[in-house]
Amino acid sequence: MNIKALLKSLLLRKFTTGLLILQLAITLGLLINSVILAVDTNNKLAQDTGLDIDNTLIVSLHPTSGEYRNLDYYRSIVSQDLHQLNQLSGVESVSLMNQLPINTRGMLGNVYDLDDPEIVRRDLYLQDSKIFLTNEELSNTLALALLEGRFLTKDDQLDFGSDENGNVLITESLKKALYGEGSALGQETNNGRIVGVVKDIMLDPTLPIDKQYGVFGNRVMEFIFTGRYYLLRVIPGQVEAVRNKVSDTILAVQAERDIYRIMTMAEHMKRFYSHDKGLAELFLLLCGLMIFVTAISSYAYSQFHISRQKKYIGIRRALGARKKDILLYVLTENWLVYSIGCALGLVMAFGFNILLSQYISLSKPDIMLFILASVVIFIAGTIATLIPAIKTSNIPPVIATRTV
């Protein structure tokens, strides 16, 4: 097959060929980045959070009665809620929190050792550490892994209006940021005295794995109005049964509450990544449409230009070219166009990746993904060109004399 002659033939119709090549490049660029986005999202959903996400229930609620302005009344109702929820069959532990892990927003604050307040200038992540107000049951509810010291207890709970910071737990990454490999026990921070260090859990998925800085203090009863979430650790297999009883149990204690959502931690995690997942699905749908439109364009491109080359093909047939030679000629012309389009598509893929990376977290394209995406494009184009190619191979030699 004379590639030089094929290139010359393509240059004679450079406008339509150029449009098809551009369409192929855009389609390939979108396809590669859509697959990357879908794979990245699935990997995020599959990553280890350090939590038992399938067996942890979250209850999001808010009072609607003016009686809750009395904080003593507020605390008494919450205490009854926790007691009644803990009595449900299948519930192992119940706790109260001001915010949830696996989230970007929430209560943030700077954390530093009292002897080294300037450390927040050296590690900017310390300026926005997660501050959790909770109770002594949190370690059981989230099944936190203790690395050093002890968990929070009932004795660590601060009274309303206390001027003390009290005792706190911190995450492993925060301990390393503040004290390196040394012990953190007994150290005084601006948020309290450290009595324990727990293994990292996923607090903010957008931050590096070694920057999951978190402080846990037994202060939620003091600031009871921040206690927006009940967390229930449930025996495996009992999640749905417990979920169905939660609302009635809470409202039986005090009915003037809005229960916004009852979900598992796994559902909370999926909800966090719902934007990424929706965007990935939208891009993949768009890519499917682009591949379909490109296939139609390839069919029209081949059909139109073949119709203008009947005399040339008839002459080749008259000179002894076999049907399979003509078929190979048409397909090779198509493959050449697609090769140029895919080469340009590689550049387009990196361009789209750089553009999208300014708004969302996205991995870089790799050569294997480029090859697989190109194969998909080539297969779609070959199928679309096959019908015109077969018709062309059936052009009889006599067509050359009819068009003289």
UniProtKB/TrEMBL annotation:
GO cellular component, one term: plasma membrane
The protein, known as: Putative ABC transporter, permease protein
The keyword Glycosyltransferase belongs to this UniProt entry's keyword annotation: no
UniProt main location, coarse: membrane
UniProt entry tagged with the keyword rRNA-binding: no
Transmembrane segments: 20-39, 279-301, 335-356, 368-390
Compartments (UniProt record): Cell membrane
Single annotated GO MF: transmembrane transporter activity
Alphabetically ordered keywords of this record: Cell membrane, Membrane, Transmembrane, Transmembrane helix
